[in-house]
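FYI - complex with 5'-deoxyadenosine, inputs then prediction.
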Amino acid sequence: MTSSTPPRTFHVKSFGCQMNVYDGERMAELLTAQGMHAADDSDGADLVVLNTCHIRERATEKVYSDIGRLRRDDGTTPLIAVAGCVAQAEGAEIMARAPSVRVVVGPQSYHRLPEMVAAAAAGGRETETEMPAEAKFAALPQRRKSGPSAFLTIQEGCDKFCTYCVVPYTRGAEISRPFADLIDEAKALVDGGAREITLLGQNVNAWTGHDTAGRAVGLAGLAHNLAKIHDLARIRYTTSHPADMDDALIAAHSENAKLMPFLHLPVQSGSDRVLKAMNRSHTADSYVRLIERVRAGRPDIAISGDFIVGFPGETEAEFAETLSLIDVVGYAQAFSFKYSARPGTPAAGMAGQIAADVMDDRLQRLQAHINRDQLAFNLATVGRRCTVLVERPGRQPGQWLGKSPWLQSVHFSDTANLGDLVEVDLIEAGPNSLAGRRVS
Ligand code: 5AD
Ligand code: SF4
């Protein structure tokens, strides 16, 4: 067990979505502002924060095995704090099941982490899983340093209540952060080195606010104002819901040059019966028509999606409708998951839960369609000239890795610096990356 001295070093380990990555960065900044130092890994840290994900069963199980693995050879453990969505959903259970955990803090309250850690170091066990509507963000320190590509959470929570999903319970109701705060944070990120900002939210395209003139604006208006930040070159956003894809946002993809040609728009299933049971507020056809409208304004846009196979009651014919939808859309990439019954969600109690081997088979077939289309998309960009944002050195000397406007990984060999936007010709494509040649 840890001594009662306050921790001097910390390590934050984030699982799950990009919003958790963002929260993890903010927690690290908060602890640094308290005078603590970041350790490279959990072995060397006095405090370990596990920033957890609850979206699927496997993600949740990982937390308990990770807690176990933090025990060191001499029998001691660091001060363990569990944050994120598992903390929110299963805080009491974690405290009961894992005596080595000293702090449990939900995603809406991590601004309180320093005081909770101090209380735990003094011998207590601290839990905070309230969901106050008041600004956690206001209590966090200013952003200072950033890599070339930064995340900025602009919206949190979800009011959609898809029947399989825990997010409305773990992250709470939809909240949009205020316009002025976001512009300020974006400027700080750009001053700190960011050239690209990805706006994050569980329903990012449901963001609403008021600009400095007091006009009501949506995500398109926010992106328009962010584009005025001179050294910000690229804007992205994720994750969107089809129901919140308004005309202004569709138009922004052809009007706002800094808005990258990439749209992650989950559909989950191609069967209207399943979509209805999922409480998705769209049909397969309305989704396809929406994609057509986006493509009419921005023909080269890369479309990405999320899919769930094996939702309760999904028949082989309904699954085949999902494959047909994939064939119609032609995804540049996609994420696909086996349905996972989450405690407390309506779908967990539905009849017709699907056997694991059926789900495995469907997932494989679905991924074969996605992989085929992803390779086709990559091959179709060969011969194009585009900018690449240099994000890190490659494995070979002189090699650099970055992203194309369509979010493809591109490697090239030439002199360059992190954060450069270099022009390349795309010369070769594989399933997961492309080779570029820098234009001299
Ligand atoms: N089972 C499987 N996949 C899920 N997702 C959300 N909840 C579940 C669940 N219970 C997937 C959806 C969502 C993505 C973030 O995770 O596809 O878009
Ligand atoms: Fe979950 Fe649906 Fe909300 Fe996405 S839109 S976070 S899948 S409830």
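The two ends are 59 Å apart (CA to CA). The mean pLDDT is 95.
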